[in-house]
Amino acid sequence: MKLGGPRRSLTGSLLKSQAARGRVWPAGRVSGMIFAMQGFERMDGELLDAAVGHLVPAGSMFAFLAAHRAEVFPDADYADLFAPPGVGRPSLPATRMAAVLTLQVLHDCSDREAAEAARFDVRWKVAIGAPLDDPGFDPSSLVYWRNRIARSRRPDRISDAVKKVVRETGILRGRRRRAVDSTILADAVATQDTVTQLVSAIRQVAREVPGAAEQIARVCSGHDYSKPGKPKIDWDDPAAKDALVSALVNDANAVVAVLEDRDLDERAASALALLALVAGQDVEPAEGSDGTDGRWRIARKVAEDRVVSTVDPDARHTRKSGEARRDGYRAHLAADPETGIITDEKLTRAAGTENSDPAVAGEFLAAEAAVGGGTAGSPRFPWRGRAG
After folding, report:
1. Cys-Cys with 351: which of 8, 211, 259, 316 at CB 3.0–4.6 Å?
2. 297 CB contacts (<8 Å, ≥6 apart)?
3. Are 161 and 77 in contact (CB under 8 A)?
4. Secondary structure letter of residue 194 according to DSSP
5. Helix 238-259 vs helix 212-219: angle between axes, to the nearest 10 degrees?
6. What's the CA gap between 156 and 149, in Å, rounded?
7. What does the alpha-carbon distance between residue 206 and residue 203 come to, in Å, rounded to a whole number?
8. CA distances in angstroms from 252 to 192, 212, 286, 292, 341, listed in the order given
9. What are phi and psi of 335, to 5 degrees?
10. For residues 147 and 22, is the Cβ–Cβ distance under 8 A?
């Protein structure tokens, strides 16, 4: 996951992260899926809204979706997810299922709970435009829709639609209060120790940099980097471990020195930069060394911004408490507390002062001020905040 360049929207990440909770089918099953043709809403929802719409709290997300559902999630924006008309059975309406997915995340419901709410809860029926006697849908339908959206060319289409409608309707005009919060998005890679990172980073350079494998074989002597895994030493012997660390760091420095002046593409340059980083982040000169004699040891203190894995070099250590350490990223959200509409979001590394809640909250405020304050210049998706 790369954090450079244009800021990445969280919507696609949230859809894909459902896999960790059993909410997304494996890719193999999706690729073999038979596409249905697109279904459309009936007019029953308007009759329902006229009959019981007054029971839905004004200003809530239920009321917002009831009023703007067709504008936020127009059928035409989902046509690419379906087979041509006349092929297969009609799907559930996109306007309805997009609204269900929105409410599901807002209320943190499981698929079964969301399906039951869409069947029995009048507020949900009004919000999604379902007739009062609508029997609902099977919970697996939500898995199907998440996969289709997440794997499409426009995985952020829901958040983009909400941004457009909020700007055009001015629903947040004059609302200047914001609730700001963040959460840790756990990474799926294992945390690597210093030796594993050094070996892995050198092997990555051998794969990514043209001609690097031959140079590594020529200048390195601490390990056979053509083979994966840790070197075989007596791991209970401190002297043996220090000698190995010294050899690996010296190999890494030698590889960087022999390749750093080459004209490399972005992927190769990133691999070489990562090697230089991991060669220095966890080590310090050995006792009695001035750092010039090639003797190194594992540093006694963990680096503040330590790369935890060469598989995902942007992941970081962080702590929710003194005991609960997590590895991954931090997702920041700002919401209007009255409507629950998200006005801004940012995905950052989990550690670092610049990625703290106060620092990111300051960025959110500055961004809104730059586009006119309460007009909500960068809303992303309406599924966090007050439940209605």
Report:
1. 316
2. 242, 245, 246, 283, 284, 285, 286, 287
3. yes
4. H
5. 130
6. 8
7. 5
8. 17, 12, 17, 15, 49
9. -135, 150
10. no
In angstroms, the CA 12 to CA 63 distance is 25
Q: Is 185:8 a contact under the CB 8 Å cutoff?
A: no
Q: Which two tokens stand for residue 168?
A: 């055009």
90 φ/ψ angles, rounded to the nearest 5 degrees? -65, 140
Name the CA radius of gyration of the chain, rounded: 26
Do the beta carbons of residue 274 and residue 223 sit within 8 Å?
no
Q: What is the pLDDT of residues 59-103, one digit of tens each?
A: 777 888 888 877 778 877 787 776 555 444 545 778 888 888 878
CA angle 357, 361, 365 (to 5 degrees): 175
Q: For 273-291, what is each residue's pLDDT tens digit?
A: 999 988 888 788 888 888 7
pTM for the predicted model, two decimal places: 0.54
The answer to whether residue 249 scores a pLDDT higher than 50 is yes
Classified as helix, coil or strand, 4 is: coil
Is-contact 172 166, C-beta < 8 A? yes
DSSP state of 21: G
What's the token pair of residue 39?
């279904």
The model's pLDDT over 3-26, given as tens digits with 9 standing for 90+, comes to: 333 333 444 444 444 433 433 333
pLDDT of residue 343: 79
Identity at 212, one-letter amino acid code: A
Of 136, 48, 62, 150, which is closest to residue 99 (Cα–Cα)?
A: 62
CA-wise closest residue to 39 among 114, 134, 164, 108: 134
